[in-house]
Amino acid sequence: MADDILDSHEQSEQARQWLQQNGTSIVTGILLGLAALLGWQQWQQSSLNHRAEAFSKFESLQEAVDKDDKELASKLVEDLRKNYASSPHAALAALELAELQLKDAQLPEAESSLKFVAENAQADSIKSLASLRLARVQLGRGAAQQALDTLKVIEGDSYAGERDQIRGDALSSLGKVEDARKAYDAALAKLDVAASQRKAIEAKRDDLLAGSATPAAAVAPPAPVSTPAPASPATESEAAAPAEQG
Predict the structure, then answer these.
(1) CA dist 231 to 55, 58, 95, 130, 158, Å?
(2) Rounded distance between C-alpha atoms, residue 101 and residue 114, angstroms
């Protein structure tokens, strides 16, 4: 019995010494863990607030666009680009502004806006749409090779027909008749049989075959594609929740 008591005393003494040696580290670790948890929660809340602010500014931009208030629209887009560049709303706002600028024939300004979207948009579909419009603007100012380089970043089948059509225009502008014809054929193969632009593409291809190609830059661009509406911050958070839990 005495041995048992001695053993218990020795164990208690060893435990006390261990705590003296390591207690500070344990407490520090617990405090650091709590600080990290609180910091993560604060960061999440800050991130949500940031997205909410960006969404609100984007809604204000759409109202300015509807009212054709170009000055206010420009200020809102500049704010989004400067302070909310990581938000998807910054790219969408620049795309909206580029459409206004194109309507007013402000080609250098539109090109700058479209470049921002092509380089910063998070969704591939938005990047592709901006790149298509950017290539059109570049082709319109005679930069056919630059337009071809812009089109290279477009992947997938979503805009394949439009991409090949613009590619054919650029190649035609560079005098590469056979390559342009192949690009037009590729565009026709990818477009729906009822697509409105089929006749225009067929006419340009036939002109090439006849040896009297119309300058591609003079051809009017296709009707603009509507800009996708962004998700609200709440929707983004709900969509992200399963991924975080996993």
Answers:
(1) 8, 11, 16, 19, 20
(2) 10
Q: Which amino acid, residue 210?
A: A
Contact at 8 Å (CB) between 61 and 26?
no
Distances (CA, A) of 149 to 28, 87, 124, 143, 189: 56, 26, 17, 10, 22
pLDDT tens-digit profile of 170-180? 999 999 999 99
Residues 68-103: b if buried by 16+ CB within 10 A, e if exposed: eebeebbebbebbbeebeebbbbbbbbbbbbbbbbe
Instruction: Please state the rounded mean pLDDT for residues 92-102.
Output: 88
d(CA 85, CA 103): 25
| Cα–Cα dist 168/60, whole Å | 39
Rounded-to-integer distance, Cα 75 and Cα 72, Å: 5
Residue closest to 153 by CA, chosen among 140, 138, 163: 163
Contact 23, 15 (CB under 8 A): no
Residue 92 carries which side chain, given as an amino acid letter? Answer: L
Q: What is the per-residue pLDDT across 36-70, written as a single tens digit (0 to 9) for each?
A: 665 655 545 555 665 677 778 778 877 888 878 88
